[in-house]
Amino acid sequence: MEMANLSVLLVWAAATALAIAMVAFAADLARLSGARVAERDTARESAMVGAGAGRVRGAPAPGATAGRGPGDGPEGDAVSRKGAGIGMSLSWLAAAMLLVAIVLRGIASGRTPWANMYEFTLVGTFVAVAVFVGVCLVREARFLGAFVTGLGAVFLVLGQNAFFVAATGVQPALQNYWLVIHVGVAIIATGILTVAFVTSVLQLLRDSRDEGTPWLGRWGWLDHTPSPGTMEALSFRLNAVAFVLWTFTIIGGAIWAEDAWGRYWGWDPKEVWSFVVWVVYAAYLHARTTRGWSGRRAAWFVVAGYACVLFNFTGVNLIFNGLHSYSGLS
Amino acid sequence: MTDDQKPGADLTARARPRPGRYVPHGIDDEFAEDAGATVPPSGTAGDGERGREPALPGIGVPGMLRWTWRQLTSMRVALMLLMLLAVAAVPGSILPQRDQDAGAVAEYLGDNPTLGEWLDRFGFFDVYTSVWFSAVYLLLFVSLVGCIVPRTGAHWRALRARPPRVPSRFARFPAQASVTTDLAPGDVVDRVATKLRGPRLLPTFRVDRRGEPARGGRPAARTVSAERGYLRETGNLLFHLALLGLLVSVAMGQMLHYRGQAIVTEGRGFANAVVDYDTFDKGSWFQASSLVPFSMTLDAFDSEFASETVAFAQARDFTAHVTVTEPDGTRRAEQIKVNHPLVTDGAKIYLQGNGFAPEITVTDADGEVAFSQRVPFLPEDQMYTSRGVVKVPDVSGGDQIGLIGYFLPTAVVDDDGNARSTFPQPLDPLLVLEVYRGDLGLDDGVPRNVYQLDTASLTPSVDENGDRLKLLVRPGESVELPDGLGTVRLGEDVPRYVALDLRHDPSLAFVLTFALLALGGLALSLFTPRRRVWVRAVVSDDGTTVVEAAGLARGDDTGLQGEVDRALSVLPVSDAADEPPRAGPADDAGGAGREAGPDTGSAARDETTKD
Ligand code: HEM
Predict the structure, then answer these.
(1) Domain boundaries, position A71
(2) Low complexity bias located where (chain A) (predicted)?
(3) Closest-CA residue of chain B to A136
């Protein structure tokens, strides 16, 4: 019980860290955006403007105030990226706290800690944040920060309030090493798809802004995301990895179903939606290589695919009454 | 930024396809064209050349057929069919399906007679075997075959062909590098080719060295053309073919499988014969002779439930201890658990359910034993509150007797006389019975569900207030039936039963193999970089050799520049070269660092995106 409580506390702490990280990242984007506006404003001196714009337009986050220090960040010409730096540190911290929370939960229940919706939410959020900080190690992807951490915080709060169940053992159908493999891989895929989804949404927004969509006119921060082509490339790479993992999830699920339920495929609602997700992402891969469908249209497939992923996780568990009703909620 | 364009996408998209190369219609693939081919004036819309083809149906029926076929095997149609497949799969998760829950379908039809009938007519309760769902996936697979067969041929030829010739101009390619060296062009070409080819046993690139005569203003040159990543296409074909294999295996399984379900109580058994099963399904190619005549006895059944408060009464473990007797008479003890089916004689036996089968004896008014059997009671909740029916048609005289009972493994009876179960284990069992008499309707030849008693035409036994009488019977007790019907007795021990599901599907190994091949092919095709590198070496006016290189990749490939740089890294840079090496297009930051080492190009490239 001790450990279970500590695990819950850590989840709240991680949610808080992610929320603050989101504010810091948002402040960073606002600051960049301000810098851009200022660049155009030839009346002012550019050095002053960088700091000034941050103060005016930045959200009231620690990042925004800390960013006003004398040293502008090494990367930005005139703009400090301290907000992004704070966001990154908090993301790392949140990932670490979540990891510990998950391990403690596993110890408290005496089994693999991903057997119900609550635990799935914890691990999925951890993977999404970990993929984000991991991607940031190899390339510049901090523009994703506000959205990944924001989604992560929402997921954790939702998990804590809507999906929480006490740590305990599982029924016989779940006592299998495939629980570790099949569900584990599914969660990793979901976490990666989350980051890819954020990337594709930003790609669509940026693309629309570049084309002059009126309501995006005020979202100056979008100019500081990489080009739509670069974001599409990043999203594809993540989606490709996740798609292979998802394929494995389905195969692993079928092997397990063969052992547990006496058939490898039975069009149970969860199976149907896993199939739908798979087909939508297969369509995405085809769209990317089909003339007239690459770019924007392909990105919409990512949005549709991720919607199906979310529905598969929430709707199918809570609405339909299938063999997969392992949410632990009744 | 440097990566703004999808590398190569615009550069060659309008080039003519290489003769003899098959490309599905509508594919957007910078690799499908010969990069060296002449480029038509730019500004043509993307739908030039290849886009022309599907536009006009030819003359007459053959032309029409060919046109239809080309449409069907085009990327665009494959994409549409995939989208349709996703949409078509959804109703099956929303509406109840006969295969899974025929009862729920009947209920739905009862609740929504009009809508239900229409839905039924269009197969919405059998979505995955419906005409429309089948049509979508069959068309998709026809499209797949039409696409994959010619692609396989084309790939086979590509595997044995030489890498494509060196294009005349390098400026259009997404990765470029150049270096000036004192080596002679022949040596340059040898070194670069060796470097690109890599280890002898596991070559990276296929390379081809050629000479180019002087042409236009350009002196004679030595060139290398190299290509790697053929496995990408191999993997892709493998993946698509494996999907086909998967479909065929699943279909074979449908035809050949059989499945029988039986309820077996402790101490009893069953034989693997069609008649011994309570229900039996089979594919249309099934033959009864393929049933191996083994038999099996259930020796004991163990169950465990959580007793801690958090998950009170949640199931923790079920084990059926059985003895299998082979046709030759050998016997062996086995266990069946929820995740561990028993594999015997090519069939798998699953533990699908369990419950109590109390032994119930009914003695009629004349003192004759009219019924004595174990009656399986179906659990209805987590506490194993279980429902069962006893039908006693063979009464010596008077009305037939029907009993509807609840079996409560751990019974608690409250002050009002209502009983309920509080734990799934038989700690304090109690049988609660309602008694009916009349004509059970068993003699008219209509099959009846053994778990249902149609009470409409029967007379219930009631107490003085007119309420239905409830008899409470404990193990080992005999209780008088009301209205002088006789007595009912519950056996001392309460045997357990297990619901077993025996399945034989000879296609399983094939299904698994094709699924894994598909997975492997997919990974190969998504993660193998497919690259072409071209190098041209010419002697310049000052006697040094100017080496230029260009690279093209299939899809987005951040490693491409590094590959090109690595190819040239084996060349000693000439001291005479005072000019800095030329940078790649729009890549000024990366160009400066490039000569320092093989990987700095891509490192610098990454840096330029960090701002
Ligand atoms: C059962 C239906 C199909 C499924 C599930 C499927 C799935 C996939 C997947 C997952 C990929 C990604 C691999 C990659 O990008 O390299 C792919 C690629 C591809 N598919 Fe399919 N496919 C199907 C049918 C078809 C059909 C009918 C065609 C031909 C018209 C086709 C042509 C291609 C081609 C050309 C690629 C390579 C795309 C590229 O260049 O990356 N596929 N397919």
Answers:
(1) 2-327
(2) 54-65
(3) B610
